[in-house]
Every structure is written in C-alpha cells, then in structure tokens.
Amino acid sequence: MANSSKTPNGKLTGKIALITGGASGIGRATALLFAREGAAIAITDLNEQGGQAVALEIKQNGGEAIFEPGDVTRAADCRRVVDRVTDEFGAIHSLFNNAGIIRRASVVELSEADWDRVMAVNVKSIFLLSKQVIPIMAKAGGGSIINMASGWGLAGGPRAAVYCASKGAVVLLTKAMAIDHGPQKIRVNCICPGDTDTAMLRNEAQQLGEPSDRFLAEAARRPLGRVGTPEEIAQAALYLAGDASSFVTGTALVVDGGGLAGNS
After folding, report:
1. Which helix (H) or strand (E) holds 217?
2. What region does 250 belong to: left with phi over 0, alpha with psi -120 to 50, or beta?
3. Residue 53 belongs to some domain of the structure
4. Mean pLDDT across the chain, nearest whole number?
5. Of 34, 89, 96, 163, which is the active-site residue?
C-alpha cells in the first residue's frame, strides 16, 4: 500500500503514481517531489541504472518506490510495467507520461527513422500506457493523467519539425482524452514547459552544432531571463496530480518563464 506517513504537506498521501522517463531530468524531479508529498512511486525508463538510483533515493528517505525497466513504445512492455505496479501497490492514481526525446531537424534534414522514433516515444507511448491505466483508474473511481507536451506544441520552432508535430499531437490527444474519460472522473491534462535545464536541452545544442553556453544563453531570452529547472516543472505536475486541480481537465498548462507570452 502507499506510504501513509505524514510528509511536510502530504498532498499525495495514500496515492500511487506511475512516472515514465523517471530516471533523470523532469521525471526524476517529479518522482522525488511526489514521494515527499506522500505518494508511492513507480518509475519506468530505459535507463536501468538511473531508474534504480531514483527508487533507492526515495526509499532511503523513507518513501516507497519501485523501478521497472521498459520501452514505453512497446505494448508488451507497457502491460508488464502496469502489471508490476498493480501487483506491488494495488492501484494507480496518477500517471505522468513524461518520457520524451527531441530531434532538431527540418523535414528535409530528418530521417524517416528519426520521425518514427520521436512520434513513438512522444505520442504513441501516451496511448499505450493510458490504454492500460485508464481501466484501472476507472475501476477505482477516477484519477489524474498528466502528459508531457511543450511550448512547441502550441507554437512552432526552427529545425524541430517532428518534435513540434509530436507535442502538438500531445496537446490535442490530451483534450480528446479529457472529453472521453471525464465521465469516469479521470482528469487528463498536459504540461507545456519552456526550455528546462536538463541533459536533453544540452543535447539539443550538440545536435545543432552550437556551443552549449551560447545555446543556453539564447534559451534564457524570455521575460524571466532564465531557463526553468526540473523541480519547477515537477511542481506543475504536483498541482495537476493533486486535489488542488480537482476541477481542471483538458488543459495545456504553460510553464515557460513567459516564453510564449508574446504569441497570440
């Protein structure tokens, strides 16, 4: 069962959360935050060493956590991950579809293999995991699904054709799921972060052949004058997972330091 001990705020006490891409970056920060707020945490990722380390850190701090390796683009892996979580904890109250990748290229530069991989990780995985988890949530009387979109799911960006396409798909998939599953008391929302200080952001600089310091300085050109932190995006996920957002569904929550403020 989920950890019922009191935490500083206990916003997720008694809840079970499944987080994809939980071995690093925003996924790791969210797993640690949800655990501090009282949730039992299930992490899945291709990075077994990183995923095990996050689960161990949670347990060393008095929380409950498991790691189950898996490729969330494969239906069989998604079934296995969900079965492990329900066998261990008995339910799933929050699903954070956080796993994602980026390829910086125009449609002319992009390979078909890269198109397929980005769409599979960023979009298909949400379909596969949600297909497994929604019946479990419905049986329990509801839950919260949080999908990872992007500011570039609402506005286009240069040399990021497939990433923009995938994140735009996430935004509308989120809205469609919210309509379909609201009657089951399942809320479905997505987060649209701006540039966030993760390994993936630095990898973008490498893909574009730009010096990392110059790339990060450009990314910080927004009203708040900096990029975000994984912990700040995790706070948005906490809001959407908890009771504070009980009347919020079908929304794309922008967390970007004002990066999209000038767009209509």
Report:
1. helix 212-219
2. left
3. yes
4. 95
5. 163
**94 and 183, same domain (yes or no):** yes
d(CA 199, CA 217): 15
Q: How far from 104 is each of 81, 101, 126, 150, CA to CA, in Å?
A: 30, 10, 22, 14
User: What is the residue range of 200's domain?
Assistant: 195-227
Burial class (CB in 10 A: 0-12, 13-18, 19+), 1: exposed
Question: pLDDT tens across 90-144, in order?
Answer: 999 999 999 999 999 999 999 999 999 999 999 999 999 999 999 999 999 999 9
**165 and 48 housed in the same domain:** yes
> Is the separation of the CB atoms in 21 and 51 below 8 Å?
no
Is 239 a catalytic site residue?
no
- pTM score above 0.90: yes
